[in-house]
Amino acid sequence: MITFTHPVFLLLLALYPPLFYLRHFWKGRGGRLSFSFTIWQKEIFRPELRLTRFLIITGDIAFWIGLIALVFALSGPELVNREKIYLTRGIDIMFVLDESPSMAAKDFVPGNRFEAAKSVVKEFVEGRDHDPVGLVTFGRDAVLRVPPSLDYSYFLEQLGNLDLLELGNGTAIGMGVAVASLHLMHSSASEKVIILLTDGENNAGEITPVTSAAIAASFGIKIYAIGIGSKGPVPLEYTDPETGRTFRGVYKGVYDRDLLESMALETTGRFFHASSPGVLKNIISSINSLERIEKRSKTKIETRPVHREVILLAFVLVMYNFLIRKVFLNEVL
Amino acid sequence: MIQYPGNLWLLLIVIPVVAILVSNFQKGKHDLYRIGGEWRKHQLYDVYLVKGFFSSLSFVFFIIFTVLALSGVSGTGRKIIDIPSKADIVFSMDISRSMLSDDILPSRLSRSKDAVKNIMGRLPEERYGLVVFKGRGVKLAPVTEDSEAVLLNLLSVSPEMFTSAGTNLESGLLAAASMFPKGEERRKVIILFSDGENLSGNPGKAVQFIKDKGIEVVVFGAGTETGKVLRDSSGRIVTDKTGNEVITRLDRSKLKYIASSLGGSYFEMSASGSVSEAVDSLALNISSSRLVTAGEEAYTFYLFLAVLLLILFVSIRIFPWKNVF
Q: Closest-CA residue in chain B for A150?
């Protein structure tokens, strides 16, 4: 957007229409030589001066645009940039995502559980505004992928790069939650949240889920535990990233509902059961609306003066006119 | 005071312009006598002279005043800018092979890593991010409050992290500059670690970007100017085609130049206490405001004159020739 610091100078533009008329159309103007020379009963004498006419017209157009641009430059044009500045600190949200092979189960059509989980996380993050988000994934081991950060593009890039089984065959829920808690420990946010997405029973890791929930609770972190999966055997297919071999089979395991419930309870969070992608989506959007705090913000207005660019343009245009009239056409006055 | 003194060279245009105006005036005089006739020579010449004189004068002064307006002559306006007390600091670390040189012990890279830890220890309240660069810049940790995550990533920093030849400082700076989150009123600081050797890319592009975003820069030079032989990953000394040992040195002047063109300060890792000096120079945790010369220049005055002169230039032409023609 453009604003003017001294818009009063724009009034000078009012001088231009009469000046333009006098300069180009007024019959009594100077620099105009009228002579009465006609051929009897024929058309008036018109020299063929196509190139000259063209040059004069472009020169005149350049000159008047230049003259207008000068007035614009005079009124102090500024480019305005508005930036929203948040005065309050957002909520820290850490996703803890299961990367175990069972997440390849194909009951979450069209893809598998893992793809469905990734896409709802992506949607969630895209819908947030100024809340730091982080990502921990776990298989047999747990790893911090993204520390809590406002850099959503980095988060989404890392999320997109995730693959099943990168962290081995296993489900170390306790480790996942513990790693997430560790990285939320020093956070200055008034509210810290872990969103845990898993579909299996804890079967790996040095820290049990119950202990990890206690750790989280001691740091004031809330856990939203989401159990993923439908009941009954489901077909499963995944490719081991190390060997490149594809495994197919039928998966029967279910997540430990009591455990997840108790983890949520211990940390004043909530437990959800997601049996289908649609339900998962609804759960995530309800967490999204639950975890909102009032945000105060102000608008910072930054202006950048652009008069120099405009002056330069005007100068070039006027000099172009000068060049055409005085050099190419040898105009005297 | 003149803000853009380089623009004053444009005043040289006046010389050819005056030459053209004078020569056209002379040519015009002869044509005038031919059209107007010898008998009213003096009457015509008077009008011609007056018109020619004022028209040329107004155009020449139009050029002069426009150039003065362009060069931003006499800027006396001042403005107070508040500097936020909190900062986002992004470390941008050169991980080219030469950073493994041990001309400063244990190695340039280890010393740089120590400096990062040192700075983070001294300023625990700030948020940090980490970028490494070789042929291109790679984000290792986004700007975060979670210092542990940054330190964790710092551990894994080594020239073997990825393969891309060269040391592209431009991409290292741009990757760092793009990391600062929007919507925050915090100082933005990039701390660059490099030995300045074999820098490719055009830092000029990054410089403008960084300046526009109001990012502050601190440059740390790693190494010594005497340098040391370069070793490859198996520990053998690297030689060039003629069999001479390749010596890797700190390119102080290049790094200093980069620091000064970004309005930042330069420190040398080999000097003792350089890290604390750098931290002090940032003067973080001090809420302050700064008085700067603002862009509110007196250009309007000159430009107003220029516009009036150009209008005069047009008007002289319009003004009738006392009914001579």
A: B181
Of residues B150, B310, B317, nearest to A333 (C-beta): B317
Put simply, the answer to whether B314 touches A15 (Cβ < 8 Å) is no
For the four alpha carbons of A124, A126, A130 and A134, in that order, the dihedral sign comes to positive
- CB < 8 Å from A in window 190-229 of B: none
Residues of chain A with CATH 3.40.50.410: 88-290
Q: How many CB pairs under 8 A join A and B?
A: 151
Q: Which residues pair with A225 in a beta bridge?
A: A196, A271
Q: What range does the domain containing B142 cover? A: 82-291
- Per the CB < 8 Å rule, is A147 touching B150? yes
Chain B residues whose CB is inside 8 A of the A6 CB are 300
Chain B's closest residue to A298, CA to CA, is B183
Structural domain contains residue B323: no
CA–CA dist A45, A34 (Å, integer): 12
How far is the C-alpha of B193 from the C-alpha of B98, rounded, in Å?
12
Q: Please tell me whether residues B93 and B207 are part of one structural domain.
A: yes
Tell me how close the Cα of B266 comes to any Cα of chain A, in angstroms.
Answer: 29
Report the residue from B55, B63, B148 with minimal CB separation from A333. Answer: B55
The answer to whether A299 faces chain B, any CB pair under 8 Å, is no
Pairing mode, strands A234-239 and A246-251: antiparallel
Nearest Cα of chain A lies from the Cα of B232 at a distance, in angstroms, of: 29
Q: Domains in chain B: how many in total?
A: 2
The verdict on B240 and B308 lying in the same domain is no
- Whether the ipTM is more than 0.90: the answer is no
Q: pLDDT tens per residue, chain A (333 residues)?
A: 888 888 899 999 999 999 999 988 888 787 666 666 666 666 666 667 788 888 989 999 999 999 999 999 999 888 888 888 888 888 999 999 999 888 888 888 778 889 999 999 999 999 888 899 999 999 999 999 999 999 999 999 999 998 887 888 888 999 999 999 999 988 888 899 999 999 888 888 889 999 999 999 999 999 999 998 877 788 888 877 777 788 888 887 778 889 999 999 999 999 999 888 888 889 888 888 888 888 888 887 877 788 888 999 999 999 999 999 988 888 877
What single-letter amino acid sits at B180?
A: F
Q: What architecture does CATH give domain A88-290?
A: 3-Layer(aba) Sandwich (3.40)
Same-domain pairing of B67 and B165: no
| Secondary structure class of A107 (helix, strand, coil) | coil
